[in-house]
Design brief:
Rossmann fold, 2 domains, N-(1-d-carboxylethyl)-l-norvaline Dehydrogenase, domain 2, binds nicotinamide-adenine-dinucleotide, 8 strands, 11 helices, alpha/beta, binds acetoacetyl-coenzyme A
Length: 283
């Protein structure tokens, strides 16, 4: 069965990036969100990225138009009835994701693969909300999706080998590099990255240095492209907090305890770049 049509659920920073790379690879893509405004913003961000490609002579104006024509907005989950693969990229919350996967199990044809872009939630538990756990898999893109090469592919306990293979092939078709990992809290990427970010926030909380100084240390001293505080804002502080909570609960070890300062910013609604304000402010 050839994968032709894709639905991306969630038109936020990740969902819009995933939709862009899928449409650029020639797939028809339904971009679904609960809010029309989020879809409009997602499509606007994609158009802006593609315009930049045209300006840099990496794409023609007609190629750009063709990519945009392959992107279809969707406000109704039942539109998933005709797709071969769904890539879910909504908020990092188990109840929300399980609810969506249970609905997709009813709506989509038997062959449809249900993939989640979750940063840290157990794929096996998401899969258990469906009657087709063999067709459920983690497809973890990195932010910003059009730029970052990695896709972490996570096997749930029941994920079938042929489903893994199809997602591995799809990853390569999107111009990305797949890395296989097993289903453990935070997988590989966030088990390593997020404690570093959390520790950077503790370093700020304890008054060791300013946020700018912490970021400079990691940029100039370790050659990181972004400092950890800036990166936390870039990822979204709500997402960072959810991931830390999942690591804390999943491993039961206090070393993963989210920093109180991180909690405070999320409670304030200062969730980072996407909200215009996090540890830094944005226009
Ligand atoms: N969407 C699309 N393209 C983007 C982009 C975006 N949001 N942001 C930057 N780019 C592109 C630019 O257009 C530019 O492309 P060209 O070279 O073709 O012109 C290129 O990226 C470089 O951008 P800039 O020159 O503006 O800026 P930069 O050199 O500082 O790079 C960056 C920006 C790529 C984001 C870089 O700062 C970086 O790599 N930061 C770290 C990103 C990272 O660690 N991501 C992983 C986060 S963790 C995660 O994703 C997993 C999770 O579950 C939380
Ligand atoms: P975001 O807040 O930018 O976007 C989430 C989108 O999901 C919003 O547009 C929201 O309206 C939509 N949504 C919420 N509930 C929905 C529902 N029931 N049905 C349809 N749409 C719904 O978040 P994001 O940063 O794009 O993260 C999305 C997912 O990707 C999360 O699971 C996150 O952990 C994961 N992820 C994030 C990053 C990152 O750096 N931000 C990296 C990799 C993976």
């Amino acid at each position: 069965m050839k994968l032709k049509k894709i639905m991306v659920i969630g038109a936020g920073q990740m969902g819009s990036g995933i939709a862009q790379v899928c449409a650029q690879a020639g797939f028809d893509v339904l971009l679904h969100d609960l809010e029309k405004d989020r879809i409009d913003r997602g499509l606007h961000a994609i158009a802006k990225n593609l315009t930049r490609q045209v300006e840099k002579n990496r794409m023609t104006e007609s190629e750009k138009s063709a990519v945009l024509e392959r992107l279809i907005p969707s406000m109704d989950l039942h539109d998933a009835g005709g797709v071969d693969i769904v890539i879910e990229a909504v908020v990092e919350n188990m109840d929300v994701k399980r609810d969506i996967f249970a609905q997709l199990d009813e709506i989509t044809p038997d062959h449809t693969i249900l993939a989640s872009n979750t940063s840290s939630l157990p794929i096996t538990e998401i899969a258990a909300a469906t009657d087709r756990p063999e067709n459920v898999i983690g497809m973890h893109f990195m932010n910003p999706v059009p730029v970052m090469k990695l896709v972490e592919i996570i096997r749930g306990l029941a994920t079938a080998d042929d489903v893994y293979k199809k997602i591995e092939d799809l990853t390569k078709m999107l111009g990305k590099i797949p890395v296989e990992v097993n289903d453990f809290p935070g997988f590989v990427s966030n088990r390593i990255l997020m404690p570093m970010i959390n520790e950077a926030i503790y370093t700020l909380y304890e008054g060791v240095a300013t946020k700018e100084a912490i970021d400079d240390v990691m940029k100039l001293g370790m050659n990181h492209p972004m400092g950890p505080i800036e990166l936390a804002d870039f990822i979204g502080l709500d997402t960072c907090l959810s991931i830390m909570e999942i690591l804390h609960e999943g491993f039961g070890d206090d070393k993963y305890r989210p920093c109180p300062l991180l909690r405070k910013y999320v409670k304030a609604g200062w969730v980072g770049k996407k909200a215009g304000r996090g540890f830094y402010t944005y226009e």
